[in-house]
Amino acid sequence: MATIYGRGAGRVGAVKEAKLRDIARHSLDGLVAFLTYFFLYLADWEAVRYLLLAEADPLVAARVMSEDRGLRTVRSASDGALRLALRCAAITAKHPRPKLLALMWTSLPLESILLLTVQRELPRDDCHIFGKLSKEVAAGPPSHLLRPWPELTACDSKVTEVPYQHSTSLRRVLLDTIHGFYLKALARMLTCELQSRFHRSLLKAGHCYGPFDPVSNIILNTIWYENSFPPQIQEAKLDTVGTLSLMRIGARSFYGLVSCLCTRYPNLSLHQALRCLLDTDLNLELSLEAAMRMQEQQQQQQSRCSSVQAAYRAAAIAAWHPKPDAQVEFLCSCKDMLGVSRLLAGG
Fold it and tell me: Which range is least confidently modeled, 76-85, 144-153, 168-177?
């Protein structure tokens, strides 16, 4: 009898251990799903590395991800994308009540505690829950419980830097940002002029690099090329600009930006160039200054390129500009005029 009881206890222990392993695996799947749904272009293996760095704390991992990608703020708890990411994570982790879990995470801390107390009598709709919460917190929770949920754990994090170099995901983030710049440039240009004239020059030479901000550079390069090299025959009126065409000129602009930085500072690695562009919102002038500081910290100042013209020429060639030499001359003249105007404004 004792032998049979011992075997039965061993089987029960084995079953419990197997269930714990399943729960741990589901929890990891949920954590990875949360990060990959919340942050664009994040691979699963990259999410696992951020979780290792944050000791499996999803809030700390999200904060580290935001700082590493140069995001100005973490999305607020009221953001629908956050709630959707939490629900996807709960579903991936096979949580029995994913909607409730996402609701608790996106609520204030005191509301989350109250949700835990009422989850046993959870109705089919959420209206009753919000009504009960509004009555119980009408008096107002303590001030320390009103802090947004990212601040509750982010302030205790000791992670200061990310030792990984995720160049592929950073490249995708930059390409997505560049695409947004082109959409803003299209919105600022006159529709009639864009449909009849500027669509050709925009897709051929409207790159986002230059001495100004990316959107201004797109418009400036487009108008300059159209006026300097008009078409031989009248172009047909174009109703829309295709997404693939914008993605193509955006990718060429990206290659031009990276080539400009790496030509100006030959010892700059690809990942360092991407970091400079990410930290400065793809402003080439600010990126060059950031790369210079980075090289000086590494005591590699002697490797600086002799002239800006060579860097602009490398950018024009890498971006497949139809008239690279003419663009280099134009951008250098704009840079000189910008420097003079800054001196006059400062003086």
Answer: 144-153
